Amino acid sequence: MKIEKPIVATNGTLSNPVNKIIECIYSRRAVRKYLKQPVDKMIIEQVVDAGRMAPSAMNRQTLNFHVLTNTALIKSFSKQIGKAAIKGITKMKAIEIGKSLISALLHPHDLSFFKEDDFVFHGAPVVIFISAPIDSEWAGLDSGACAQNMMLAAKSLGLDTCPVGFAKFVGDTKMYSMLNIAKKEHVVLAVILGYGDEIPEVHLRKKDNLFFIEQE
């Protein structure tokens, strides 16, 4: 079978999309500006279904999904999570804070988030919290694969997304109980979803990190 190799430009874009999946992978962006247009519940369920199809450690399928679509409620959660996130960051060890500051200086856009009115959910009309067992060694791997499936599915359906690590601080808010998350679980991350109102610049991708280990 002939395998056509996609031609990738230096900025990471495809000049000859090979198929829909690869095209979605290369066109997906972390979008942080959304239209106020709501997303149909059936589309949300379709995106979550794609997440359910992701691999999980020993096929235990331990992840749960908690969806917010009420704009006012999302804003309230965002404000509380934002405060909890800032408080959590300030509690970091001095050396970790130093590393974060250096990273922010190298990447100024990281600091700009805190200037936004909603720097957690960016005005998205849908927030999908992903929770996992607290004692799960593989929660990060499972939720990461799940989130990527959802983001690619959303892109194929004409929507945009962004993974939100700050969402884990929801457990430190007064509103946390509204998500009805089991005591033995916690939020690992969230994915925001909606119709994007921006087309982010494509960042360059490293090309010197591929190593073939071969034997004669």
For the CA atoms, what is the radius of gyration?
A: 19 Å
Find the CATH topology of the domain at 33-91 and 120-194. Answer: NADH Oxidase
Spatially, the strands of the biggest sheet line up as 1-2-4-3
Helix content: 25-40%
CATH superfamily of the domain at 33-91 and 120-194: NADH Oxidase
Which assembly state applies to the chains in this document? single chain
Residue runs with pLDDT of under 50 for 5 or more positions:
none
Query: What is the terminal separation in angstroms?
Result: 25 Å
Number of helices: 6
Mean pLDDT: 87
The tally of strands reads 4
Specify the structural class: alpha+beta
What is the N-to-C order of secondary-structure elements (H for helix, E for strand)? HHEHHHEHEE
Overall body shape: globular
Sheet of most strands: 4 strands, antiparallel
Strand content: 5-15%
CATH architecture of the domain at 33-91 and 120-194: 3-Layer(aba) Sandwich
